[in-house]
């Protein structure tokens, strides 16, 4: 399925090995990793197209289904469950209805999803006229050609603190940062502080070795500061460079996952950016153009924009806390069938 601006393989948990190591080994073979082209599997040779969603009925009384996101590395034999994916989340509700995990309503269906990676909850609502998932519609999102049916995703406030360090601003490697977690651990930095404009293409940014090295140092330092420990082998936290908007939005962004520059922006990463821009004296607030009377924030990215509805309140500890986060995405079923993974390697190295 395509979910938002990502693409991934969606599985029922019951169709995969229950033991994580065996499951991950199988998924590497299914996706064609490790290989920079993933030529022998389903992967699309990019982190945004090398993703897996594992779905099961939920035992949580506040959820209908459980969703485990797995990021499959392209050129390394690695499978990570350290983060959520808000883009593939857009396809979880339709998939749950397609597989009979949730009954469809006659006009619309709301599916409550527990994201196992973080324990956070979300509710996805989408059209199901006549009790069948409708994928066609007139909703357009940047980074996806054409239009499709809307999927409204609402996020209740999560259990994690909005400010993982307890501060609105920190400094890492001489760079002012705001560390925020509104569903995705994210680090906000002004592009200018890193000697780039923030308007470069992803390819241009990836071809800047000095920037890549600086971002790596910042990520390792801020990972510990945010309580994430050693993040050298993970894709979190996300690093987002901020610049003034160019096309009528609130802010321009360039996000790294962790060293590849996102061709758009992830849903949960955008939710964290939006919340960060609501903070008084946060990094980037002086660059942003916000309407204090409007919860909607338009976030510009390399291939267009993403609209997030975001508002903050005050938590029991007196610190800022998320109050409401919502986004409209789209999803589409691409194919439904049987995948034939390559043979497992023989213990002695044969096939």
Helical coverage, percent range = 10-25%
Overall SS class: alpha+beta
Tell me the total number of β-strands: 16
Please, what is the oligomeric state? single chain
Calculate Rg over CA atoms.
20 Å
Give the biggest beta sheet. Answer: 8 strands, mixed, barrel
Give the overall shape, derived from the CA principal axes. Answer: globular
Mean pLDDT: 95
The succession of helices and strands, N to C, reads EEHEEEHEEEEEEHHEEHEEE
> CA-to-CA gap between the ends?
31 Å
Low-pLDDT parts are: none
Helix count? 5
Strand content: 25-35%
Major beta sheet, strand line-up: 1-2-3-4-6-7-8-16
Keywords: Isomerase
EC number: 5.3.2.8
Protein name: 4-oxalomesaconate tautomerase
Family: Belongs to the PrpF family.
What does this structure look like?
- Pfam families: PrpF (PF04303).
- InterPro entries: OMA_tautomer-like, PrpF-like.
- The chain has 5 helices and 16 strands.
- With 351 residues, the protein is of the alpha+beta class.
- Strands 1-2-3-4-6-7-8-16 form an 8-stranded mixed β-barrel.
- The longest helix has 17 residues.
- The chain starts with a strand and ends in a 19-residue tail after the last strand.
- The model has no long low-confidence stretch (mean pLDDT 95).
SSE blueprint:
Elements: E1 2-3, E2 6-12, H1 20-31, E3 51-57, E4 65-72, E5 79-80, H2 86-98, E6 108-115, E7 120-127, E8 150-155, E9 170-172, E10 175-181, E11 185-190, H3 202-206, H4 209-225, E12 238-243, E13 251-256, H5 267-277, E14 296-301, E15 304-314, E16 320-332
Parallel strand pairs: 2-3, 4-6, 11-12, 13-14
Antiparallel strand pairs: 1-2, 1-16, 3-4, 4-5, 6-7, 7-8, 8-16, 9-10, 10-11, 12-13, 14-15, 15-16
